[in-house]
Amino acid sequence: MSQGSRTSLLLMIILAVLGLGRAAAQEVNPFENDVPFSLRMAFFRGPADSTRCLITVAVENQNLLFFRQKDHFEAAYEAFLSMRDTESGHMLRGLWDKDLRVPSYDETTLEANFDPLQTEMNVLPGKYEGFAEVKDLNAHTYGNGRVSVNVPNLSEKLPKLSTPFFYEPGMRADSVVDSHLEISTLRGASLQYASGQPIFLLVEVYADSTRPPEGWKLTAEVVKALMVFPRVEVSLADGELTQRKLIRLPSQTLGLGSYEVDVYLRDAKNQSLARATSFTFRIVKSASWVSENYSQEIRYLKYLASETELKELMAVPEAQRQAALDAFWQKMDPVPATAVNELKVQYFERIDYANRHFSTDQREGWETNMGEVYILLGPPTEIYGSRLNQIWVYEVENLVLYFFNQNLRNREEFDRYVRERRWWSN
Fold this sequence. Notes:
- The protein has 426 residues and is α+β, with helices and mostly antiparallel strands.
- The protein is built from 8 helices and 23 strands.
- β18 (257-266) and β19 (272-284) form a beta hairpin.
């Protein structure tokens, strides 16, 4: 590889497009992605004949322009939503702004954002169509998309569930268990969490006064690539027609990537009484992820570090782990003069892409043959074939790779190519 090609490869940053949740028949179809964002609507029973709608908009830090201030870095964006009920003509509109502050430059490049914009309003039930738009006020760039959502009537055909509501992980769990607590006191979380961080869902249950179920319960199941994680069950009180419950999802074993969660209301015989529409959330890296998941961090380095380096990093005492990782990445930094390590950013963005596109029911995408090739070489110039059997062409590298059932057939050729160009091991 020529010096120019190598520099180009290092500096190319693959923009990760934020996955959008699918709550309550909600659809968001982006048609401009200069500022990718997520929009989620959670529905609770509101006053009279209306439904209470909690709207959460989140933009990843890495997709915003931050300006340096005296003691922090600051970004700002504006969110606009305009929707119309296709039958009644009722409007759902709003214009809101959000300021984001982070203490360091490194945090401006995170793919996470745990301080989303949130607002609420009462809306009449119905099917709404329209669009949402986010503007980066510093960069004067936009992201927007069409939105279609069914606002449910939570007073009919009981029992029913509210939309499971992700709330900010930093809040105390016992502060939301009280069934009389106002929803407006909660701050919704974006559908992104740091690996190992507690994940909580808030759910309201509504029953029919003529036949309140006995022995009923809430269950939640996390699913990824045909794998189902342990079911979480939360018992409900008999005789109470409206209840608010907290569900803690088992996040300790979740690696980086996207997951779906299903929430059901079941009776004493385990039969389903109501179901919340599946939606997606993501596990991402955050500023605190490294210190809490050191062994996981080292595992992800296997394509960059030698076996000797991996063993040395694993043997580092706990108090010195952060310094050891900083030294490793400093050695790998292709452009030390810049404040951000371009290779590190690119490496983990490619791991995230591999997890979202190449995962199987046996392993995460980054550990597959396709994932390894993508992480080290980036996207191929051309791809031929089906989903399982493909040919990847890398024109600049003069390399053609053959995958059958996602397994790399000319493995020796790829290994030789990488071994001869492992400039980072020098």
